[in-house]
Amino acid sequence: MAKGKEIITPKQKIILQADIQPPFNAMVTEVESDYFWINLPKEGNQVLVLQKDQRVKVGISLPQGFYQAETMVDILGTQNDKFYGLHMPEILLDSQERRFLRAHHSTNVLFWSGSLQAQSALVNFSAGGMMVYLVPELEEILHSKQPIKAQMQIDDFPFELDVKLAWRKHYDNIPFAGFQFINLSSRLQGSLTLLSVRLNK
């Protein structure tokens, strides 16, 4: 746990997550008493469009851990370096959810367990896990409670991974599932880290 005013400081890089959109990187440009300004969150040709009073998650990666909190858009600015004014959260909680940089990327993912198979689509991934659409065939695999493997290809690099379910959630009535990579070699983890960094540029 950390106080918002202690770690949300000018020139601090943050990660924003709104609804089911992919995470966006932004920079804290100025800090006021009750809110802080960020520049326009942009990834490639995409920008993060937010409305006043919209709730968002903010995350900060520090050497001692990843901290996150839910906050709200207080002010819509007009300058590029003061684009959104976000409410200053009192505290941010230490989270295991995103210790690794997460990249938004679409590709097919094949799951199998014993004789059961399911094909889904990747939403995002990191060196620690991935988010996919929870299709009925994947639900059947989860109900089998057997070890699960996943296979996917990212930027022409094929991966075959042992996975386990981390969470299930619905966004706008669409089911999603988060899987943690397990028994991951340092070589595979390093490759996934490099790919997530490359795809976030």
Automatic annotation (TrEMBL):
It comes from the Bacteria. Residues 96-189 form the PilZ domain. Pfam families: PilZ (PF07238). SUPFAM superfamilies: PilZ domain-like. InterPro entries: PilZ_domain (IPR009875). GO terms for molecular function: cyclic-di-GMP binding. This is C-di-GMP-binding flagellar brake protein YcgR, contains PilZNR and PilZ domains.
